[in-house]
Records
---
Amino acid sequence: MSNKITSPEQFFGFQMGADKKIARWDKIVEYFNLLDEQSDRIKVVNLGPSTEGHPMLLVAVSSAENIKNIDYLKEVNGKLDDPRGLSDTEVDTLIKDGKATILQSGSMHAEELGGTQMMPELFYDLLTRTDEEAERIRGNVISLFFPCANPDGNIMVCDYYEKYLGTEYEGNRLPWLYHKYCGHDNNRDAYGLNMVESHYWAKVMYQEWYPHVWQDHHHWGFYHPRFLVGAPQAEPVMPYCDALGLREGAWYGAHMAYKLEEAGKKGVITGVQFQTRGLIAGQSVMTLLYNVSGLLTESASAKLATPVYVHPDQLAGGEGPIRRFAKKRQAQVNFPHPWSGGWWRLRDVVEQIKIASWAMLDMAARNKETVLRNRYLKAIRQTERGKKGKPYAYVITPAQHDPLTATKLVGKLAFLGIEVKRAQKEFSVDGVKYPAGSYVIFLAQPKMAAVKTLLGRTAYLDNEWTRSPDGTPVRPGQDLATDTLNELMGVSVKPIDSKFEGAFEVIKEVKKPAGKLVAESKSGYIFDGRLNDSFKVVNQLLSKGVTIQRVDEAVTVGGESLPAGAFLISADGEVALKNIAADSGIKFSPLDKKLDAKTHKIKQLRVGMYQRYWGGNMAEGWTEWTLEQFGFPYTILKDADIKKGDLNKNFDVIILADDSTALITGEEKDLEKWFETRGKMMGITSAKYYPPEYRSSLGEEGTKALKSFVEEGGTLLVFNEACNYAIEKFGLPVKNAVKDISNKDYFCPGSTLNLTVDNCHSLGYGMPEDSQVLVLASSPVFGVEPSSFSEQCQIVVRYPEERDPERSLLQSGWLIGEEKMYGKAAMVSAKSGKGKVVLTGFNPYFRGQTHGVFKLAFNCLLS
């Protein structure tokens, strides 16, 4: 059989990882499809198009017999994933029949080339090797692969590399995001499920294959140890997970490290780098919550496919515990054979990832029944912990501020494989009645850890594991201090400690309720401004020329009370409304007479969004994605578009997404600090890193144009860190009260905080008065400076005035120095000339997940 199978070198014309050669995704797809034709040991599945229309592949490699029985083997995995109700005999049979299922993904971050470039060689070996080890792997393991977790990015990187090959810019990073919307954040969408690629991953993980291990192949910097393998977790430990999952990670990691050492590979490290509790939004970390062993590899990078020379004295560590020894280049137990420097190539990366990948499969093949039994044990133990612990269940009732968003939350949970039940009848707990239609998530299920992490109020640890020796707090796991999805989405979830019974049915998917046009009306229709999806309807109708008004006070229609911000459709919009009503999920109530209330006519404002280079801005990409989901049109503005001025001619609102002043202005004095900190981490040490056309710079000219835009009546809408730019450059009578404060005195590393919204203000329409918002370490906190023009600053959102025992400032996460926030503003509308600057001291579109505050920005985009 091996004589009939084309090798990668034969097909591509070069060895994988060869100097200055990158296999492009379209050619890789062609090669995998050829292998599928040549061998009965491989099955290539096109899951569908990526964000930009390229094929997203899942590849399974095993014995021909296993490939033939693939549907049954999926079924075995599914039963062991949730073994409730199975007898011991049934479990034993499943373990005997099943196969260890190992999923590996490559190059999710597209500039981290090694994983995807390695895959053709690994597949070829899996298909053609005839030794005992290979036969055992094929017989006992289903080797699953996302060969390229980001096809769009691979093509961008490959084409950019080829364009500048042979120039001074050869091997440099892309000037823009390597995913249209989310860039590097694509592995922070594990529970948000906003990207189409995330849907593919989640469906394979939690609905179809239930793999036992997910190993994700990444890169880190030039000067790190050459290779990190295994479960790269350090303290603090993630709560709620079964300890067997952590043991497995060390188990696999030790075998991979051994095989790498056996092969003479230097600079291999295990057991450090990322906090176990952090980056739960990442796919390979979230797996621990699902009783799946989540592993990473991190390879030292070359300049893409161009070799890089590393001097011995340049070798240093990365983040966390690794710094203690890597700077000294000293051997330690988990780093016994340091690399001494020299040339480093993509081929080196390919070789070490291939050895580690094969070792992973070898370990699973040698211990197939142990791997399957471990999955069963974790599921059973987690179910028992959920049955005995508190809370006993979480309840999501129909009575929500935004019921449609609550439905979206439940849909995400169900898609992620969490068991969700719906109450068929009213039930009572401790004297409290819950209506039929309530969603109930019992903790007595294998996914208990995921349920508690995503729905349970979180208190991040504050101890020796989370602070440096001098007391400085350490950022949680390169991400957030809380992942409470319901708080991000603005959905009320009730924890219940007492055990209870009732009539409940398991739901597999959640469909949005059908909207309804209650009756025809000659006076028009009204619908709720508290629903995020109402804005989508408004944009659909406005694009069809329908007249819509916003109601500026609370009203009662047909016995239903609606707060200020409801939408009023004229009778001439009835035909257009009928065409979209059912799909909207919204109730449209008819008016029997003209509404006796203060209203104003609205229109879609002409929105421009600044987009810079310097590697792109993920926050801007997420803003694009969110606006598109709700039908807001926008125009991308580059530096030249803003600098030429006369912006009011084409725009009413210009958005500056969450960003640093340095990257917005592009001025040398601002960039200098950025190069020394964030830029250095990415290998960007000067503006000359990029070709001249990609050196973003609004500069004084662009700032002057934006000032003129505002003074002549425009609205500048700025998010999170970008507020510092607006405050400084526009001379606003507002200060960032936490700017330049030591982390020891103030620190809020991605936590949900409680706040109060002025929902009678037009920018606060539709919001609950008591809300929650995700605050990042970079988020400003506003104080309005005393002046004789204080009326020009309107506070729309503020933090509580003082410590309130009934409602603390911190909802979930970690907050140091809360007294510095009491009474301060989180959102300010500051008048400037004929226009205004809206300072939003948080990112309202953070990863497309913060549905609870979407409206605060949506309101700024309608007149």
---
Amino acid sequence: MSIVQDLRYSLRRLRNSPGFATTAVLTLALGMGAATAMYSVIQAVLLNSLPFPHPEKLLIFRESEKGQGMSVAWPNFEDLRAQQRSFEDFAAYQGKTIQYFDGEHTTLPAAMQCTSEFFPLLGAKAEMGRVFTGSEDKPGAPAVVVLSHKFWQNQLHADPNIVGKAINLSGKLYTVLGVMPPEFHFWLGQPEEVYLPLGPEAADSDFNKRTAHGSMSILARPKPNVSEAAARTELESIATRLAAEYPATNGGHSVIMSRLVDDYFTKIRPILWMLMGAVAIVLLVGCANVSNLLLTRGADREREYAIRTALGASGYRIFQQSIGESLWLALGAGVAGIAIAYLSLPFLLRLGPQNIPRLGETGIHWPVLAFAIAVILIVSLICGALPGWATLSVAPEQALRCHSTSSYAGRGRQRVRSSLLVAGVAITVVLSAGTGLLLQSLRRTLAVDPGFQPEHRLALQVVLTGDKYQAAAVRQSFFLAAEDKLRTLPGVADLGIVCTPPLAGECGDYFYSIPGQTDSNAASLPVADFNLADENYFRVAGIRLLSGRAFLATDNLSSPHVAIINEAFARKWWPEGNAVGHTVLFGGRGEARDLLQIVGVVRDVKQWGLDAEVDPEIFFPLKQRHPNWIVLMVRTAGAPESIAKSAEAAIQSIDKEVPIHMHPMNYYLAHTLRQRQFLTLLFSIFAGLAIFLAALGIFGVAAYAVASRRAEIAVRIALGAPPASVKLWISAQMVRRVAIGCAIGVGGSLLSARLLRDLLYDVSPADPLVLSGTCVLLIAVALLATWIPARRAASVDPMQALRAE
């Protein structure tokens, strides 16, 4: 009953001080809103269970050579599956490029090929129909497909009779066996839309080679009595036997294991928790400020508390009232914080990179509300405990003998207030310095030369799938026809062809050796990225040729095989000489290799991002290789978007079922920076909030110092101190405390620098310019925050102040 009375009393007190209550609530609401929004992202991405039973027990295996991971070859998977005894289920899966044509539009749905064990391993059952079985997962089996719920709804208009019907995928009819539930998907970044049996691929002799390392991985679940270490040991022993049995292809091979949950979240987990740490700093700064406000408010009420104690009130009741007051403040701030989070989340999610798994599932759900309630309780204890303890530490007789708060507000209370201010500044420096490092990294990244000219360039990706384009000559004919069509369009200044344009990743990577420098039969061969380009690409993309020549129209199947390499490749093998004229043996052990003569060296081009290292890369002439997808790089006379529609129509006039994706090259440039920009934006917002709250705290401490030391200020002015010296005296006290906080914060920044190391580009975590700039900024903020209190101190009338005292 006393708790209810104390809560009512605390609420009445707050209603009588609306200015104080509003300031405290808004101070806490900023931090609590940021914390709630950030936790909603963490809850959706990291804490939500994956959509299958016991995901923590699922393991992913790949092959490895000297510790370097690579995909699994199909014959090796079959041997591992047949010989293992440690797993309940053992499945293979890989991505596949297919197209779906609905009669008007062509799309490229995310397709997965998997073995029949895949669905039972994940405990998945079809919502309609069934999944495929072992009899349908082998060469020569009828073409069947399982659909995702999303594909069924969006592409097939939720046809209730879809099971048993046939759909056209890449020009081939597949019978629909079933539709999966809406919650089921395996790939989190881009959920798969169709599932195809993997076994029929074994009819292809190339797929059935031990050297065919495409993109296949193994998904497995150990038996209940088998540990992860034992399961890995067994597969390693099988891989060792295979290496002994097939030394030409498997020599030196083993397996590499990872947990599924780690495979999904290893990269994003530390970033999200780091952001949560930044939010915690903002909230701590807010708590320090509110504690200071409550401490000041408690000093004004010490005579009241002393009288109540003298009349028999227990210290517990007085402390309980202090906690009750902070609880009301935290409750109001929590409600306001949830509203802030709810309103800000859509804006932040639109800005965020879309490749973060399950980011779209973020929202203010019950677990997030439970977190907000927990934060409310914790904040109320943090904010109320210190002021409550400070009130109890003053003896009643001491308070009753004093005539004003200034006469009994002892050094202990002043030290506590100063300590809270210093602590708030210190943790603000840690967050602000980290933000400064990220801003410096972003600036350095924006200044990076990508190695090509992105302006006035349009990239049109064309993908050819299905039996119609199985013949290399047919694909080559289509690409040449598309090139001829585009060259006739108004606004097209030049045109080249490449497999993968800059900043879009790799066309592929594979083994190679250098005659005379490496052993082509060694257990571990070097790996390089490879790409394909025609004779015009380097000119059109603005990639400078450093030595040798570009490809020629005569570099075709009937001519000697040639290659162009990038600077990184040349530096690795010929650091002091010219690479032109040397040869490269392209291919792995146990397979036919291609002897290539290097005819040119081009400038390094950023393929993986502006902040990524450039890997060794080999370019092949397009006419000596025949991919099933290319990118037509168009240099335009005007804006690239101006020819987009006419370019699409020109290509589809050849075949309307061919899917086309197009982007200006500036899109790729912006896309590679999106995650870094988003992270820097969030840190900047949180650092800005922390600096704002720190400024409020400095202002509050300075204002209280002026109010509590009014008599001392009056004496100084009466003795002849000019107003400027009074302002300087007040400001110097605040700046001294802020400087101490900055010194502590710099130490904390240096200790926490390793957390940011992986997020920085070309910037030292101990960058003196950033650290000193952060301290200068905080001191400038302190001077600005103390300007009004210092001005008020300089305008004190000595006669009035001393008469009142």
---
Amino acid sequence: MAVWMLAVCSGPSVLCGSQSVVANTNASNFGAGSLTLYAGQSVRSNNGQHRLVMQADGNLVLYHINKARFSTGTAGSGANRAVFQSDGNLVVYTAAGQAKWNSRTSGNYVARLVLQDDGNLVIYSSITLGQALWNSQTYYSGANLSPSINHLVTGNNAGTRIIQPAYPTADIVTVDYDAVTNFGADNTGASDASGHINDALNACSVNQGGTVWLPSGKYLLTNPVVIPPNCFLRGDWQDPDLISSPSGDNSYGTLIIAKVGSSNPNRSDGGIPAFRISGPGGISGVTIFYPDQSMNNIIQYGYSIIVSNWSSMPVLENITLLNSYAGIIIGSDSSSGNGPHELARIKNVKGTVLGYGLTINNSSDVDVIENIFFDSKYWSDAGAFFNPQSSMSINAYTLANGTAFSFRDIEQCQFSQIFASNFYYGIVFNPNNRISASAEFINTNITQCHMALICYPSSLDDRWGLSFAGGTLSGDLWAVYNNSAGSWIMGNQTSIVGPTYGTIADGTTYPRSSSTAPIPTYPLRSSSSVPRPSGRAFRDISSYNVVRIEVNSDGWIPTVDRDATPGIQQALNDVAGLGGGIVYLPAGCYAIATHLVVPANVELRGAGTGPGCGGGTTLFGFEGESSPTRNSDPALITLNGNCSGISGLRIFYPGDNYLNQTPVCFPATIRGNGSNVFVRNVNIIGGTIGIDFHTFTCEQHYVENFFGWNTSAMIYAGNGTGMIRTVHSNGDAVNRASFGIQGWNVTDERTSFNSISEANQTFILLEQPTTGTIANGEILTNVFAFGPKQGVYNLCPNTQVFNLGTDNLGGQVGSASGYNIVATQPITVVNTSMTTGSGPTYGYAPYGIITYYNYTFTGETGNSD
């Protein structure tokens, strides 16, 4: 990004490189009408620590050092300049003069815009710096501050609280900002709400992350809503399949009325969306409706939701696309030269789409996609308010023009429960630009299409190809057309109805499809299957004298002299005494000098809504470093009682520098002791054992969305029946979340980090129960590890795994290591892919039995039953 600096020239001070005139020589203080910033230009505060930049992507951003503290949320809008007008209004314009954001301060002709040394951008009412009309809420607590600031949390500016949505949810809902109550968004659909919602999201971003609530109602959008990193926009979602009588307009919960303008979704940027997500942000619980769409006059709108390139861990769930032309696109076509995305999490998307449903491009790490339904019924069965069109007319159009799922350059992505009917193309794999694709599918039903599955030349990776377990691929022109030379498609117990071309295999003709016994039932996630506290008490840490440290990119670490442990523990104990509920840690960093105990029926919750790589709420762990008794020492966090849990947090061990190739060992990070203990949306970097649900009996334990890198094991379980969903281990997690700490940010994670895990890490260790017997063992879904010593080590009876991947395994030939699966008890695996790295084989079963439904691998040798 080019940055234009202020310089003093003859006459008035000017922004060099443009015609914009600055009225005085103070680089941070501007009168009304005296400042215009074009793309690439910036101004600085007097102390040099804060910078206001008009970026080339259309976003006006305020930085502290290199960390964004405020933005107008106009990235991708086409904006090219920011103007502090003569009427006192700060406005972001496109080249055509369309306003994309404004400060709502017009009518103040003697106002001044000041970028203060405390980091706050303020519009004052007069030359004498009178009343503050608007500010970015980005002030620090003192002047002349160093890049790393300690903040004592004396109040939560967001006003976080528990709310009760109208429709059932899997979790207790906490919100930091209410776009209606706090920011004036109209929830009747009468006036444009996009600016108000963006304001709420910007405030959330300034506070380093959290949740913005859109309560049930109707919201008119005439401009895109941009969701910044570490922010989550959450609505009140009614599953459209549960609406018994959709005759009215209020039965969908949070309804988005999209009038954002038509634009071709085939543009390189995906067109004009209703929502754009950047970084580890997310959206949940909205129904999107285009009131001007009809089958008599089809408008090719851009994608309803666009996830930007380079985004890591975006979360999209509980979304209805009522009549979108194009639904969701993640990542751009890699031929454009833009960077890949990573670790997208997409669950529960339903709707009618006319042109394109879900498009995923350029994934450099494993996406997880679950429960996606595209069908004409969602629009045709809607109430009169939604101008429902007949299924016959919708199906005729989508059969002639529609593509339900389009993929390019995706790496080992994991799919389960995806459905589409009456499209020309059901699933398309396009020719690669960066890397050939590979994927695993469970219960995929593509029916009544012309081409159910088509793979163009050079689209698939010939090491793994595609694995389908169960479901149906039905097409009258082609059920399966595989034109990617050297690759193959496996369809174990997948009904293929229609003509086929290319290499296709099933369990009766191809050994890699293996078992022909009935495929185990895939475990669906429901609101009732996710543990949570029954109490509704709530405490944030504002009254507990806890130090919160600003997340920064300068490598500065919270230290034990700023120990947050006593205050957080007191809050946990207080909530337990009130019958259970939630203790909330706002976004920021907290030093945990000793350890925490989460009592029964209490949840320790951070600001994260997914296992994000940056920002949000982070705990820094110190206790037990290199302890000789670490296996019996207290865990950093103990879930001590039934229905105790942790969610929305990153946990980081700054004392473990892996460049010396000798891991520093710690006690377990999270240890369970009770039934229905749970871990959701958590990221652990640098621990020894991430989650320990074995030392104590943990019946019905639950893990979902767990990411990171731990030297010995990501998960140690098996002492009680449990569910483990969506887990990812990768040594590059250290780079993704190391805060720029000197000596950590290295580019060769294979040498620096994965060589350690290849020698030491068992990705998921399922040990024998210590007491009693287990009738129904562990269930694992959508789990993947890069660079472990071995994948799943199973000593627990009756284990089932759905979609398992390992890459670059370590270990030595002749030992029970270096294997995708080691089993001394029976284990059933539905879809697994593997590369061996230096390890010898895909499976090792010295005493147990491994039952495979589709296995793909390189380096095929060794022992498997």
---
Amino acid sequence: MLPARIDELERVQLELEILRSIRTSTQVRQLLAEEETEQQGLRRTIDERLGSLRREAERLKAECERMEARLERLSFVSRSLSDDELDREEEKSRADEAAWWAEWRHRRSSRQDRHGEVVNRSSDDDITLRQLYKALARLVHPDLAEDSRDRAQRETLMRMANEARDAGDVEQLRRLLAIWARADDGPRPREVEAMRARVAQLRVEIGELRRQLAQSRMSSIGMLLRRGEAEIRQYLRTEEVRLRRELATLRLRRRRVLRQLEERRQSLNVRGGE
């Protein structure tokens, strides 16, 4: 038998490297999916325990800021203004601001068009929620599973995709699609140069997936997840106490501003009656 040609040996080595890289890429994708699943579960736990308190704090804060803006407005007028009058002023102010920004965007778009520049559009205009969901479903549908473990993983991913679709969470769908967009579909290259390029591409892909995994684990929710159940329970208790204190402070702030508004209106009414 004649010894194999050098280019044939290299082709075999490259083919093995491609297969190893694809396997590694799949493993890292699975780790990313598992991390995303665990973090999503923790987010749900946090929202069940703290969500209502956070939303109430946001509502009270917005209400306080609105009343403080009204108090400031009343400090510059010579007569008392009713809530209806203040409402109309606020609506007009918001409408004027929206019109200004619309005109500014129009002028910018016109300048870019005149200079032949590419106008950046929101990715939401280019890729709809439905398109993202369909693209992801084509990649991770359980019917495409190779074995029982793969099927269980895909069923979890489909549940996550369904929840993101139902919630209108475009960013979640985009993250899942970025993780599971497989570049190894289709026929594999047979030419040595093309195989070298494929190996280089897979190495870059694996590096990016590992970067995403490290970034996800180092996020605040990822770090909390790694502290264990006891630390998570402690975090929830501490955060609940903090939010209840914040709510108490906001309610006091609201009462104070309401009192100041009433005092200012009475002062204006007295001044107007003189």
